[in-house]
Amino acid sequence: MFDAARPLLLATLLPLLFAACGKVPTPAEEVRPVRYTVVGDDAAQPSERFAGEIRARQETKLGFRVAGKVVEKLVNAGEHVKKGQAIARLDAHDYALDLSAKRAQLAAAEHDLAQKEADLRRYQELLAKNFISQAQVDQQRNAVSAAHAQLTAARASADASSNQTGYATLTAVADGIVTDISAEPGLVVSAGQPVATLAADGAREAAIAVPENKLAALRTAKSFTVTLWAANKHYTGHLRELAGAADPATRTYAARIALDNPDDAVKLGMTTSVGLPNANAGEQIRLPLTALLDEQGKHYVWVIDPASRKVGRKPVSVAAVGTDWVAVSGGIVRGQQVVTAGVHLLRDGQRVSLLKESAA
Q1: Which of 256, 266, 199 lies closest to 228 in space, CA to CA?
Q2: Residue 337 pairs with which residues in a beta bridge?
Q3: CA pair distance 360, 38, nearest whole angstrom
Q4: What is the pLDDT of residues 263-292, one digit of tens each?
Q5: Closest CA to 219 of 176, 255, 247
Q6: What predicted TM-score, i.e. pTM, was given to this entire model?
Q7: Contact 332, 319 (CB under 8 A)
Q8: Which DSSP symbol is given to 289?
Q9: Does 222 score more than 70 pLDDT?
Q10: How many whole angstroms separate alpha carbon 174 and alpha carbon 352?
């Protein structure tokens, strides 16, 4: 029986022994490592977002000014070209023949005018000797005037034919990138048929489609947030153009948001998201979704006291929820540190150690 009572006796005597020595052990305070974010001015969540793509402000559909068969393609899609650089050529043999014929007509008109002017001088000499009448001289003078008119017409016809020959070469109207080209050798095109698209260098914009119930908010907004999906970079922009009528198929209005501060990361065709400013943006804070603590239908976040490194639970109201973010109001202000991971494992007043800051 003594062996059975030994554990109970030890459990009773050990605290008394430590108390007599004045060395009662105290449990160490638990310090939990947490990830956090600093609430910033960019944490306001836009009320609406519209998917779009990066486009050039000036986009030109290029086509030959004359009809013909394409015999040469000089650039490919995606290449950068300079103003005046040749992009494609047509078979200009027929236009060259026509130009030769018009130049021959021009030469004939020049010789005819020279002959009639020489005849007029001889008529005037004969009139001075009374060998012919004044009527004959006037008739010859009219012939010279008609020859002048024929020469003018022949010269204009030759110039037009020369232009037609030049139109057989398609050139770039500005420095830019050829985003699309269909002028393959052998293709027969009509005059004005688009065969290439040129995106001019310079300003870049986000092209979006807006439903009719957001038109008023779009017109009154002073600035927009433009986010590149690939680079995860943010830019500011302003409304430059809004269609006056809805697209008949989608019933949305095409809009262009001009980027205020584009850099080299902005490439044509990139997927982008345009945020429409929230009327209550000053009252809402955007946080990672993992920062939200939900208990019995109420929402909280853990705010870190920078001096004591202890956390305190603050109630908040949820304004909007996205795939990985939440917009809240009340309880926190910009500049505070908010826990973004492990929120269900904390308690009020618990000391924490800060890990790498996460993005808000």
Answers
A1: 266
A2: 38, 304
A3: 7
A4: 888 999 999 999 877 655 555 778 888 888
A5: 255
A6: 0.60
A7: no
A8: G
A9: yes
A10: 60
